[in-house]
Amino acid sequence: MPAKNLVIVESPAKAKTIEKYLGRNYKVIASLGHIRDLPKSQMGIDIEHDYEPKYISIRGKGDVIKELKRAASKAEHIYLAADPDREGEAIAWHVSHILNLDTKGKNRVVFNEITKDAVKNAFKSPRSIDMNLVDAQQARRILDRLVGYSISPLLWKKVKKGLSAGRVQSVALKLIIDRENEINAFKPEEYWSIDASFKKGRGKAFPGSFYGFDGKKQPLANVEAVQKVLARVDKKDPFTVTSVVKKERKRFPAPPFTTSSLQQEANRKLNFRTRKTMMLAQQLYEGINLGGKQGTVGLITYMRTDSTRVSSVAKAETSKFIHEQYGEQFAAVKIRQGKMQEGAQDAHEAIRPSSTMRTPESLKSVLDRDQMRLYQLIWSRFVASEMTPAVVDTVRVSMEQNGVQFRANGSHTKFAGFTKLYVSSRETNDADKELPDLEEGDQVIMSKTDPAQHFTQPPARYSEANLVKALEENGVGRPSTYAPTIETIQKRYYVKLTARRFEPTELGEIVNSLIVEFFPDIVDIKFTATVEGELDDIEAGKNNWVQVIDSFYKPFSKELASAEEGMAKVQLKDEPAGFDCDVCGAPMLIKMGRYGKFYACSRFPDCRNTKAIVKEIGVVCPKCGKGQIVERKSKRNRTFYGCSRYPDCDFVSWDKPVGRNCPVCQHFLVEKRSKAGVQVVCPNGDYDEKIQK
Questions:
Q1: Is the dihedral of CA 272, 275, 278, 284 positive or negative?
Q2: What pTM does this model have?
């Protein structure tokens, strides 16, 4: 007997989990994401008739659509259970169109977590499709299509094929290039510091640093200023303690994760790329098979959110857990509300575990290494957010001799609070810095001084985490767009990752300069943020999507016409490679390709000989003993090492070989890099050397 109720979701993993919860009267199938979209081969928007989109069935989805129609024809009730956001609402709307469903019918169900109770409760109160959400998604899609399919062909014509431009990616690229310009324009300034050691009687030495003269802070600009300070200090005479300031400081826990803060923290703490973080979070949300009676369970709440709100049920469960595991003194009495990002939609809860009682330790046997690391991060951050503040006693001591003042700072953790469980990458969990008991009038002796020269540093290039943070702070894009945006600007070779920081390429600078000159609104951060706000207004029912697009497109179309006429063709000059083609003898050139520069014969297309530009590292291949190890780039721009004799020798390594073998097992040794420094290790784990900072 066929199931009476058909439920349509996006992914097979989600379908499997939900079907188990709903029972045999429900059949759950997946649409595998969107089934309709704008055509790839054309603009697909009727600009003359209120920007009407021309949707078509996505190529390759024919069998999926047939299966949806076949299952729908046998069902008494059809429910659309796509994700609870704009994209999910649009998928539900497109499915309802394909199946000729009434969009005003009560067939839309949403849930924030894939657990038995949440899913069953959602089916008790289905609603109609929210057209405000659909219109907001359509407006974003149409805006991005108008920009991309207008500027990209222009770049193909004026620069080279394969380039692209977009509302969010162009701003992201400009941020990276603006930072590079700041770095290039930066002029370092010299400054000095004087650290010293002090002792009270026969007690333990403690550090202090020069502060100033006669109670006023004094910077040290050069070595002459340092000599002036040291000339006034008599090392034989003691310093007098002139003030002791003691304070109690509270450190509050960070709120639970939003999409953006999760992407940033996973990048900093786990070295996960944004795309990887979202992929793993999707897996944890859609469900993991826990085995036994539990079966498949969604371990976290929906991972696309900009809210820090938490349900009262989750708060109560977490409070109970903290009381049982850590004690009453660690459970927050009054929950501190996190500050909402301006423009946050607050449509869902924060990202949290679906049950605090499912500790990371209890899931070790069912999660792989990366899933476990991300779940541990989400779980710890959430539980810590419901704990009490840490309490730190601080002391600041001022010591003076001949008008020269040094200061010493100490701290002692009075109560660990939330830091017992979690400290974010933006905070520090320094060890206590103990000072001896000191009172005003005490005498201390300076035992040694250590003057040091420094130079001011330029701003750092953007890491993936910092770029996400900058986009969010400026209101550009939405958290769900950050991963594809970052991937696109790398795929187009507008930027490359160097030591985990984004560096613009020559091609990226050319494209940016053209867009800045001819499409200033597209890369104007305030303008782009305003557009995002208008999309949010469409979702809230405060704005009409056609009017929003029209107010954008009319001035944009004038810029486009001006660019068509005024943009000069850019010649990407090929550089001489300095050697001849080993096929035909013609000079080789350095050309710009999709994945960077490469060698190509100057007689192209008559001779199609090409070679990758590689860098030798001075190590003989440990596999064949004939070729040189060269540094290469993967399609995702990740550095790896291979033999120069490829394909005759297929040696590859993600870690840099050092040209020596392990003294224990004779396997080749490699360099491992971490925040602590560089360490030479054996991949088999039989040998390692001291870390070199």
A1: negative
A2: 0.82
